[in-house]
Amino acid sequence: MMAFDECCPYPSTYEYTKKSMERTTRWAHRCKEAHKTIDKQGLFGIVQGGFFKELREKSAKDLIELDFPGYAIGGISVGEPKEEFLDILNFTAPLLPQNKPRYLMGVGTPDYLIEAALSGIDMCDCVLPTRIARHGTAMTSYGKIVVRNAGYEKDFSPLDSECDCYTCQNFTRAYLRHLINAKEILGVQLLSIHNLRFLTKLMERVRIEIEKDNLLNFRDEFYKNYGYTK
Residue 228: what are its φ and ψ, rounded to 5°? Predict the structure, then answer.
């Protein structure tokens, strides 16, 4: 359960971002007070502050004083360059308590999920896997593919030979292309099933690599296969 917040657009001025962050903190106080009548949900506070580190630090400090059961980082992954995303993520995550869940909002691409785990984030969410499925795009072990493209018309292989999802075990790229281009809702459903399984399987692997203290090496290997650059 999330406290109410304001997510600044990118870019925003320091003055606007400061007022927005202060408003988010006031709302956090009001949400915490209202939450006293609810005992079945964990209320998370959301750290804001845009791309200004002193505002991020102030926001985190004020929310920690309210002693929420968990904390979220909001207001990044809103269109900024990846370098700025990583800079603020890696600055903000260590400010939050280590003994409480840390949640990064609105992140769903494989590279951002891995980077989030490296920074100490525990959970993420995003509409991306189903949104790109609606446009005929699938995430695979070797990068994204757009199955609506003509090159898949006679491709009778699965979306991803390394995937164990229902879609990959039962349907070909050619058939999925037909469904998407015919605007059959089944096509969107099948691609959504695959994309969601792809990401849950990725995070299963991330947990394994964390336990092996090998996440950095895994990231580099994954980036190479997927076509990312660090």
Answer: -85, 160
Q: Which pair of tokens denotes residue 68?
A: 């929420």
- Alpha-carbon distance of 181 to 140, in angstroms, equals 20
Q: What is the DSSP letter of 141?
A: T
- Helix locations, 138-184, DSSP H: 166-170, 173-181
77: left (phi over 0), alpha (psi -120 to 50) or beta: left
- Backbone torsion region of residue 106, taken as left when φ is above 0, otherwise alpha when ψ lies between -120 and 50, otherwise beta: left
Q: What is the per-residue pLDDT across 70-123, written as a single tens digit (0 to 9) for each?
A: 999 999 999 999 999 999 999 999 999 999 999 999 999 999 999 999 999 999
Residue 8 has pLDDT above 70, yes or no: yes
pLDDT > 70: percent of the chain: 100
Q: What is the pTM of this model?
A: 0.94
